[in-house]
Write a structure and sequence with these properties.
With about 350 residues, this protein is of the alpha/beta class. It has helices at about 30-40, 50, 60-70, 105, 115-125, 145-150, 155-160, 165-190, 210-230, 245-250, 265-275, 290-305, 325-344, and strands spanning about 5-10, 20-25, 55, 70, 80, 85-90, 135-140, 195, 235-240, 255-260, 280-285, 310-320. A hairpin with a 5-residue loop joins strand 4 and strand 5 (about 80). The radius of gyration is 20 Å and the shape is globular.
């Protein structure tokens, strides 16, 4: 194992450049290994989504282009790219909805049929997607995020408390629109999984209570996950913030996995309590200033802390360009041995 037998293309997501990475002589395909992780069926190693998944975020989607590079998103919101954070934020002073009560009059719903999805796949993905890797399709700006983007964070919080009926009507329509996009992800991009973004907290706590989640968001997420499951897809919720108190509701909503913020959550405790019902994916960044020895030790600790359940995957990104040790290979090697010890 770990003999290079070819190469994969790592496709651009979140504005990152494309890259070529080694393909190894895995004992089973990376797709089958990832599926085992999602199903709770004992993967052979910790999946490294950075190289072992087909990552799909078409920039023909205005949301993707605006969030990654700046510009106008699907709903007419202006975004400005911030070089220091390598991300775009809503341009100050931008507002596309005067009040949630006016959503039916003021929101112009994007027509998804106006995009030639088949042509985009043919041009930008057909020769890069490989059948031996799981394909996941990224959808940004979920229900809460979209509410804040259209109005403001302050007004979004007010709406949660004072306008539940108007929000529910808006979310009903927004859920329908998202389901149309999910069907496109399956039909044209052959997605196996949806990565659905909706940040729900700060590093200290959630934006709202479990009660509000249950009343306003749970029914909508259940529509999203059911639509994806009916098409044979998994759904991972990307949600930053300290949201451990929402885990039971995220499971009830039907999500198969959660991609959360490492420094804001006790991932080990959450895995110990909920790992049988909810897998964890994560962006796992190794800082440039970390020494080779420290980086290897960090990977070993991460595997020890989270891989015991067989429900852990990560997008491993090493920020040091000329590191002497290959950390992707180390993740594979260490987790492969760990699972052999655990499962035989």
């Amino acid at each position: 194992e770990l003999k290079q037998v070819g190469e994969y293309t790592v496709m651009s997501i979140y504005g990152s450049p494309e890259a070529k990475v080694p393909k190894y002589n895995y004992p089973i395909t990376p797709k089958e290994n990832m599926l085992r992780m999602l199903r709770g069926e004992k993967p052979l190693w910790v999946p490294n989504q950075q190289i072992e998944n087909n990552q799909i975020q078409p920039v023909v989607m205005p949301d993707a282009k605006a969030r990654n590079f700046g510009g106008t998103d699907w709903f007419g919101i202006q975004w400005t790219y911030e070089p220091l954070s390598h991300a775009a934020m809503v341009t100050p002073g931008t507002r596309a909805l005067s009040d949630i009560e006016n959503w039916e009059k003021e929101i112009q719903w994007p027509d998804l049929s106006e995009i030639d999805w088949a042509a985009d796949y043919e041009k930008n993905y057909k020769d890069k997607v490989t059948e031996d890797r799981l394909s996941y399709f990224i959808i940004v700006n979920g229900f809460f995020e979209r509410t804040a983007d259209l109005t403001s964070f302050e007004d979004a919080f007010v709406a949660l408390l004072e306008c539940p009926e108007e929000l529910t009507a808006f979310y009903d329509r927004l859920a329908q629109w998202h389901i149309e996009l999910i069907k496109i992800a399956k039909k044209y991009y052959h997605a196996d999984m949806i990565l659905f973004h909706d940040d729900m907290g700060t590093e200290k706590s959630t934006f709202f209570s479990p009660k509000i989640f249950r009343e306003l968001f749970l029914p909508q997420y259940q529509k999203i996950t059911k639509a994806a499951h009916d098409l044979g897809m998994f759904v991972t919720l990307h949600s930053c913030g300290n949201i451990g108190t929402l885990m039971p509701l995220i499971i009830e909503a039907g999500f198969d996995a959660w991609e959360g913020q490492d420094r804001a959550n006790d991932k080990k405790a959450i895995m110990e309590q909920y790992g049988k019902e909810l897998a964890q994916c994560t962006l796992y960044v190794i800082p440039e200033e970390m020494s080779d020895e420290e980086a290897v030790a960090d990977i070993h600790q991460r595997v020890d802390d989270l891989a015991f359940s067989g429900r852990f995957a990560c997008r491993l990104k090493d920020m040091k360009p000329n590191r002497k040790v290959n950390l992707a290979e180390e993740l594979y090697r260490y987790s492969r041995k760990k699972y052999l010890e655990m499962n035989g």
